[in-house]
Every structure is written in structure tokens, then in C-alpha cells.
Amino acid sequence: MTEPSFTALTAAAARAAHLIVDAEPKIFTDELAAPLLGGYGDQLLAYHRDNREDPILAGGRTQVLCRSRYTEAQGATLPQSVVLGAGLDTSAYRAPQTHVFEVDLPRTQDWKRAQLTDAGLPEPANRTFVPLDLATGDLAEALVKHGFDLARPALVSWLGVTMYLTEAAITRTLRAVADLAPGTQLVADYVLPAQLRDDAGAHYADAVSQVAERAGEPWRSCFSPDELTDLLRDKGFGTVRHVHQRDHDVWPRPDALRPAELFVLAHASV
Predict the structure, then answer these.
(1) 80 and 155 Cβ atoms separated by less than 8 Å
(2) 3-class DSSP state for residue 17?
(3) Kind and range of the H or E element at 199?
């Protein structure tokens, strides 16, 4: 069976490893991430465990944990959630009151289903898989086909994806999200250009972008906050807020997790 993407595995490993190697209080708790790693779990978690102070691994955990913590908090009052490029996302288990639509490539969803079965995890009644290639498919059409209500607002999360896409592909998806119901919220992370990164961010980018490229998933885009704000407003979004890692209410910490200037969250309203 086709395997999930390298980035889907490493993001789930970061969420799972946080519960093992980092101090209290936890930034984000995902107890289902480890079972979804399947046969990769022992190796990936041992790598974090044996190198818990490594700035690259700690930086990866920081990125994934902060974005997950912030994003899930935004959906508490919305009836629908759309997870673009869902990978091994488990948010449906923590939001039983929300109908969660997971959008991803069919092969990734097939692998995830197999992992859920192998781990003995129940299928949540509030989750719907939406098989779609965002580069070629119609997002609204696919969502409606699987029960999404276009008349109701939703939280749309797009995490760990934009840096792997061209600006044209990003624009295409932004246009589709901006056409959803008023009150819809988009939370997407993006990479800052080199001149806006601090030393920690530059070191992380140099190391991780090379690994991603070798895995066949090169970084293709970066934005300044002003550039992305202009793009979002041009596509029809209203209020835009940018949340840097230093802005999260989790600092200081007694472990290796530290904020860096590289990944930023854009929170935009329709």
C-alpha cells in the first residue's frame, strides 16, 4: 500500500514525541498520533527521544505544536471544519461537536484508514474523508458531494502545506476558501523569506529544506506578512492576523522548545 508523505509522518511524530520527551505543561496533547505512525513509530520516536535537545528536532516540535494548539482553539464555536492536506490529523477525535472534513489525496487517506484499523481506533462519526488533489480538483464541489453545507461557516486549516506549493497553486486554493460562507476562518502557516528569519529560523530552514527536497517535497514558496496579507485581501478575505511563534502563550519553557522566526500562522476571515 502507498505510504503517506514524509511530512505527514514527521508532523505526527512531532506531536507524539512531545508527550514523551518534553516537559510539563504540554503545549498540545495528541495521544492518537503515535498509533498512527504504525511501523515507523519506534524509529521516529526513538530519534526524538535520543536527541531531545537537538535544535532541529525541537524546532520541528515547536512548529507543529504551536500551529495545532492555535488552530484547534479557533474552531470551538464553528459547526464545520475543513482540514486541507490532512495527513495524519486527529482533530476530529477532540471535537465531537464539529463535522470535520479531511481533504487529502486518496492514497494518503487509504494509508491512514489502514493505520486506524491496525491501531484499533474507532472511526469518529463526525469525520468525513474528502479525496481530492487540490492542484487539479474543485474544492467546493468535492466538499458538497461529501455533505459539507456551503451556507454555514467553517474553520479551514491548512497546516504544513503552503511551503511545498507554488504561489499559483496557493492562490487557487485561497480563492476557493474565500468563496465559502461569511464567518469562515482560515488558518494557514507559511515560511518567511530569508531576510526575515532569525538565526534559529535560518539554521532550521537550511537543514530541513534540504531533507524535504531529498524526500521529493521541496519548499517552493515563502512570503512576508505584508505580501501574504495583500494576497489574501486580493482574493476576498477581510481581517488578517499573523501569529508568530513568540506570540503563543507558552513561553518560557524548561525544555528545549524555543520560538523561532521562520514559520508564521496567517489567520484570515471571510
Answers:
(1) yes
(2) helix
(3) helix 199-214
The answer to whether 169 and 135 are in contact (CB under 8 A) is yes
User: What Rg, from alpha-carbon coordinates, does the chain have?
Assistant: 18
Residue 137 is given by DSSP the state S
CA distance 243 to 189: 9
In this prediction the pTM is: 0.96
Average pLDDT over residues 161-190: 96
List the end-to-end C-alpha distance of the chain, in Å, as a whole number. Answer: 39
DSSP H or E run through 47? helix 41-50
* Sequence-distant (≥ 6) Cβ neighbours of residue 211 within 8 angstroms: none
| pLDDT interval class at 252 (50, 70, 90) | very high
Q: Which three cell numbers stand for residue 138?
A: 474543485
Q: What are phi and psi of 73, to 5 degrees?
A: -65, -25
Q: C-alpha distances in angstroms, 96 versus 26, 80, 92, 176, 178?
A: 22, 11, 6, 26, 26
